[in-house]
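2024-03-11 09:14:02 INFO worker-7 job=invfold-0412 stage=load source=structure_tokens
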């Protein structure tokens, strides 16, 4: 009995010591997409702002492929010590069931905190013959299968399917490895349509190189209030969920998760970070959602909402 109590005390002491000494070396933040996309941009902004609290550099590593699931799998299989984390989103932590993954989206991760909620925008190349969602649907009905639609992640694939279902139209899906390369293809006139987070779209829209057709969020965004929703455009139910959160491998000590969370919360409270997020069209998550428990609840709600829709759509990506 005495040996057992001593063992428990030593384990508790080791956990506290580890939490207090963490981190003692740089932390790797996996971005599961190529450089240049909204996920990469947000990760670099927050990672840099976390450094003062952590006392260590947050190193961004882009690990793209398979809709982001390759990078996320690396985190799921990493040592649960807090030194390898990922910036997750709908595509990688909800819609990843579209892919043949070998990790559990609910059980293999320890939530650190929700960073932002992000408007999803339907955009078109500069010369496309439609300027809004109503015009797009009319053109697509007059030109069946004539529109090319970027398939750069799980959210894009599902949104394209829902659009076809809601409007009775068809599109040609064109696969790309991430939003950055896909946007370059759109700027080059190689594809017609794309669903992407505002962070990728707004700089190009302001420059007049792409056209925003609709905001696919349930309500207008405070950072782009002039963009109508799909429901306002006459297509209710056509919406996509966008957000960013930080995740660690499961079994990461609570003290380490708390330390990472404190650094993230500090970063999101920085006015410079908030200004950069607003400029990109990202809305900082509420303080409650920024907690590990807040992200856990948010993630659970997203899964409960979207998995039945995904399964009913019967979409699989090889």
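2024-03-11 09:14:09 INFO worker-7 stage=emit residues=318
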């Amino acid at each position: 009995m005495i040996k057992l109590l001593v063992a428990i005390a030593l384990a508790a002491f080791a956990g506290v010591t580890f939490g207090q000494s963490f981190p003692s070396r740089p932390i790797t933040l996996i971005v599961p997409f190529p450089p240049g996309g909204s996920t990469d941009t947000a990760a670099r902004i927050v990672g840099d702002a976390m450094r003062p609290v952590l006392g260590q550099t947050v190193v961004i590593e882009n690990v793209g492929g398979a809709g982001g699931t390759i990078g996320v799998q690396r985190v799921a299989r990493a040592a649960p010590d807090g030194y390898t984390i990922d910036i997750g989103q709908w595509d990688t932590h909800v819609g990843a069931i579209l892919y043949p993954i070998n990790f559990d989206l609910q059980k293999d991760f320890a939530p650190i905190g929700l960073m932002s909620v992000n408007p999803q925008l339907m955009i078109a190349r500069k010369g496309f013959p439609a300027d809004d969602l109503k015009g797009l649907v009319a053109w697509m009905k007059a030109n069946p299968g004539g529109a090319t639609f970027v398939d750069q992640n799980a959210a894009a694939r599902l949104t394209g399917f829902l659009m076809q279902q809601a409007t009775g139209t068809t599109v040609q899906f064109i696969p790309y490895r991430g939003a950055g390369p896909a946007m370059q293809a759109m700027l080059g006139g190689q594809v017609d349509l794309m669903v992407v987070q505002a962070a990728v779209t707004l700089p190009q829209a302001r420059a007049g190189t792409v056209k925003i057709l609709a905001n696919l969020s349930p309500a207008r965004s405070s950072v782009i209030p002039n963009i109508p929703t799909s429901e306002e455009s006459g297509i209710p139910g056509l919406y996509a969920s966008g957000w960013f959160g930080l995740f660690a491998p499961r079994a990461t000590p609570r003290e380490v998760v708390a330390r990472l969370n404190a650094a993230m919360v500090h970063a999101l409270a920085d006015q410079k970070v908030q200004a950069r997020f607003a400029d990109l069209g990202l809305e900082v998550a509420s303080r409650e959602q920024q907690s590990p428990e807040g992200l856990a609840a948010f993630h659970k709600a997203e899964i409960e909402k979207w998995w039945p829709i995904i399964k009913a759509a019967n979409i699989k990506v090889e």
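2024-03-11 09:14:09 INFO worker-7 stage=report msg="The chain has eleven helices and eleven strands."
2024-03-11 09:14:10 INFO worker-7 job finished
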